[in-house]
Give the backbone structure.
Amino acid sequence: MSTEFLKVEGLGKRFPGAAEPVFDGVNFDIAEGEFVCIIGHSGCGKTTILNVLAGLESATTGHVFMDRREVAGPGLERGVVFQGHALMPWLTVRGNIGFAVRSRWPDWSRSRVDEHVEKYVALVGLSGAIDKRPSALSGGMKQRVGIARAFAIQPRMLLLDEPFGALDALTRGTIQDELLRICAQTHQTVFMITHDVDEAILLADRILLMSNGPQARVAEIVNNTMPRDRQRATLHHDPQYYRIRNHLVDFLVARSKDLSHGRAPAQPLHVSPGLDPEPAPEPSPQGTVVPLRHVA
Amino acid sequence: MKLSLGLRAGLVSVLLLALVLAVWHLATLTSSPAVPAAAATLTPEQVEYARLMGKDPAASGATSPVQKAGFPTLGQMGAVVLKNLSDPFFDNGPNDKGIGVQLAYSLGRVGLGYLLAALVAIPLGFVIGMSPLLQRALDPFIQVLKPISPLAWMPLALYTIKDSAISGIFVIFICSIWPMLLNTAFGVASVRREWLNVARTLEVTRMRTAFEVILPAAAPTILTGMRISMGIAWLVIVAAEMLVGGTGIGYFVWNEWNNLSLPNVIFAILMIGVVGMLLDLLFARLQRAVTYVD
C-alpha cells in the first residue's frame, strides 16, 4: 500500500477580484484504499478542493498528483458523486448509470452494459426501481443512484461532495451503512466532504480538519483510532468515540476561526485523540454526553 | 348529479356556438330584403347583360335567390361548406381548385420554409448557446432582424430570387427562424452545469455531450420555439400568398373576395383556423414527448 496514492501540494485558490485566496498552502495525501473525510465550516473551499481533485476546476497555485501523475482535467479514474445527485431527469435509473458505463467502456455490447448496470443497481438495493425516472424516486434513492453511477465506472478514486447533506437522519444512516459496506467490499479509495462529525467518525480512516477561510488550510489530520469494522449501532459505546468526537467539535467550535488568514500550519499536524502522549481533554463518562445528532 | 368539469365546459361551448349561430341567423334574416322578383322587373337589356355575365335571371330568380354579394344566411353557408368539403381535391385550372388542394399548397410552402429554417436555426442556436462570444457578437444582428415583418422582405426576395413561389418560401423561412434560433440558444445556454460536469468527469466526447446531454436537456425549450415558429409561419403564409398569388389558401381567400363570394371567404377563414389548431396540437404532443420532470 503506497502512502502517496494521491498527493496534494501547496494548493491555493484565489477567485478573481478577491483580496485574499479562499485557501492556500493546502497539503495532504491519501493512501490507496483509504477513506478520508474533510470537515470545515462553509466558505473554507472544501468543494473547490474536491472540484480541483476531480479536474473540474483549476487551482491558482499548487499541484495534485495521482499515482505520481499530475491531475490536469476530469477523468474516468476519478468518480464524482455530486451534492445535488446530478441525475439526468430524462433518463431512467438504467439510462443514467448506462450512460456512465458506456462512457467507460465504449466497446461493450448492449447486453453487457445492461448486466453491469443491473449489478451496481442491485448493490445499492434499487433493483425494483431500475426503470423509473429520477422524478419518481425519493431523495435518498436518487443519491443512491448517484453513488451507483460513480461506483459503476470502477474509478480508482471516489470523490463525494456532501452526498447525504439533503437527506433526513434515518435515510442518511441507511445509506451510510451501505456506503461503508460497498467500500469495504471494493477497497475503494474515497475522499468525502461532510458537515457531520458523526458521519466522519463512522466512515473515515482519517479526518482532515480545515480552518476557516480566507486563507484556509488543512490544519490537522485526525487519525480515526477506532477499529475499522465499526458500526453505526455500536459506535457510541466505545469511549474512544467521544475522545475523537470532542476533539473534532472543539476544533470546529473553538479553534478553526483562530486559524484563518493563514495562521494554520502549512504542514498539518497528525493527531490521534486519546492515544497521543499529550493529555487530551478528559472525556465525559459514557452516557452523559448527548450526541449532536442522534443516530437511530 | 354533479357533472365533470370537462362536460360542463363542453356544454357551455355548445351553448355559445348555438348563440353565435342564432345571432347570425337572425341578423341575416332581417337584413336580407326580398330579392327583386328577378326576370319580371328587368328590362330586356338588363336580362341580356345578365346573360352575358353568365347569369340566367330567369332560372336563378325562380329557384333560389343567389345573393353572392351579401352576407350569407346559415343555410347558404351550410351549403357552401358541404359543397367544398364533398370534393376538396378537384382541380379545374388556375383559379378553380378544391380547398384541399389549396391547403396542401400552403402546407407545402410552410413545411419547406419551416424545415429550412429549422435546419439553420437549431444548429446555429446550439453554437450560439455554447459560445458566449458568439452570443454577444450575433446579438445585435438578431435584435435588429427579429422585429422585421416578414412581408417587408418580400420585394427584396422577389428582386433577388426572381421567383414568386420561392419568395413565398423565403418569407416563411425568415419568419420562423427567430423563435427557433433564440429558444435553442437559450435552452442550450441554460443546461445545468452539473449535467455537463457529469459528462466531463466521464470523459464524454463533445459530440456525444451535445447529442446525449445538451439536446435532451434543451429539447423542451427548443420545441417551444418550434411551436411558436409554426404558429407564426401559419399566420404569415396567408398574407404572403395574398401577395404572391397563384395557389394556396391565402390566394383562395383573396380570389373569393374578388369574386365577392363571402361564404367561401368565411369557409376559408374557418379552415385556416382548423389547420392552425391541428398544427399546434401536433407540436403540443411533440413537446409533451420530450418534456421531463425535474
